[in-house]
Task: structure prediction
Amino acid sequence: MITKKFIRSINIKSPSDALDILRQIGVDEPYGIEAMMPKMFHYNILLEDVECKVANILKQEMLSLGGDVAVNRGSVSCSVDKTDALIMGTLKQLCRLSEKILSQPFRLKAISEKLASLIYNSNQKDYALKTSRREIDINAGSLVMGILNITPDSFSDGGLFKTEDEAVEHAIQMAEDGADIIDVGGESSRPGAEDIPTEEELRRVIPVIKKLSEKIKIPISVDTTKAEVARAAIDVGAEIINDISALRFDEKMSEVAKNTGVAVVLMHMRGTPKDMQTGELVYKSLLGDIIKFLSERVEKTQMNGIARDRIIIDPGIGFGKTAMDCMKILKHLSEFEILGRPILTGVSRKAFIGSILHDKPAERIEGTAAAVAVAVMNGSRILRVHDVKQIKKVVSVVDAIMRS
Result:
């Protein structure tokens, strides 16, 4: 009997996938596996605005290692001042490149350090996430953050709750439906929204957070850009600050977070809710600009005394982005893993879903479910949603598939 030989392509998405196939083949453990694993992951790393002499050195070094670097056609002759450089190689080749350029001139040491950091963050899958009250297990499965808007003008659920008790009961129901975090907000951040006085925001959220903290055991987050509101919310039970300005709008916000030990969500947004969707929504490099902004905010936040294990990042779906931008961010969400912090995404009932389905906000649950599934598959660890019961099931199934 003649056995037909079979050939197929293997799609390796994680170290566990690589380990499975190597063990299936019967590769020697542990040394053979340790030697081969770094060769199984290929990276494409973009460096922007690199001096030509630096780009040429990088290209020569990567060619010597069996990789390559794509540069502008004028880079070799230095007929252009600068070029973007796309480094292409395996994990092993990139590690060797980082070592080889560490002691070279022309600020290559800084590139070496950034490469090493990128490699580490890209391969970090287990995150520590601490608040002022607990350490949240973010590695067992993606978390669902239930939205509790106590506002008259939010785009989807404004004016839904007439009394404090109604708001509290809804939050309790979300907790029973599987929410891992409740996010309480008293000021709308919909496009065109006006700021409200601090006193009014305090009046809306503090009594609800106080009552809620006495009735549920899961973490409570306060959605605010005002330090005074955050401080008051923390005093009555909140342990996460979800700040759409990434701690920029109120100079005292970092101090509040530092002194109380809460976790913080740093979100990307151009402008303010009032003007973020006006004018031309054009980015030089959509993903590059957002990642650079969040990287700088993470660094600044740490410099202000807030520990790295208390930081969450959010690319800001719908905040100063077109519908196509939102879809592109979700498609390439895994690129944000280079920042080395858990990714929160807020896609629930957003306008980009409406642009596809032509549904009203309250009718976008199926579209939300699809977007959430893509987000989880591409690395999101926290999903901020309205429809907790349904989305919790979606997240559980996607998690099970991705972790199988």
